[in-house]
Amino acid sequence: MLKFVMRTALFPLAVASMSAMATPASDPHTPPPESLKPLLSMINERLEIADLVALTKWDSAQPVQDSDRESTVIANAQRQAASYAIAGDEAAQLMAAQIEANKLVQYGLLSAWHSDGKAPPTPRPDLGNQIRPRLDALQTGLLQQYATFSRSRTDPACPLWLNQALPKLAKDRLHEMALIRATGELCVAQPPATAAVTH
């Protein structure tokens, strides 16, 4: 069942990943900036917490989708953005990507557990009093690290950095696909130069 879900729901992400891998860098030897590693580490840590969120959703039979919570998280990021010299829309896009990646992990895990008829006996922290405060604290760190990395978003080698780094961070294929989703907008492609028209 999990294989079917990942093939159907995650296929577009796989295509996006392959497209990014095919993007040539102007200088393949350009090393990633030091700011990339801590940013990806925080993104990955947030996805690890998604496992715990999924367990609480399993126990409570609550839906993965929580639109009110998502709106609150994104609005808070927009309010914090100016403190880190980030545009509000950028902060919103960053956190929206993290939310979608988090849900991807939850859906994948819940599908597997339903197929098995049980969830793992992992201790469950409280969602409201323990897990969400951790996510809120990570949000501040994410905005800080994103602000530091932001000047490198347009580097032509940016997709290559991600393609090399993400597989090393992920503990399995589901989390690797979630990392791809979480970092989907980190790199900004520059439009090709157009030749001047002469008459």
Notes on the structure:
Helix content is 67%, strand content 0%. The protein contains eight helices and no strands.
Brief sketch in words of this structure:
This protein is mainly alpha-helical. It is built from 8 helices and no strands.
How many helices? The count is: 8
CATH class (first level) name: Mainly Alpha
What is the mean predicted local confidence, pLDDT?
A: 86
Domain module tally: 1
> What is the terminal separation in angstroms?
62 Å
Number of strands: 0
CATH topology: Chorismate Mutase Domain, subunit A
- Going by CATH, the architecture would be Up-down Bundle
**Unreliable stretches covering 5 or more consecutive residues:** 1-8, 14-26
- Oligomeric nature of the chains: single chain
The helical percent reads: 55-70%
Q: Largest beta sheet, briefly?
A: none
- Gyration radius (Cα, Å) is 18 Å
List the secondary-structure elements in sequence, H or E: HHHHHHHH
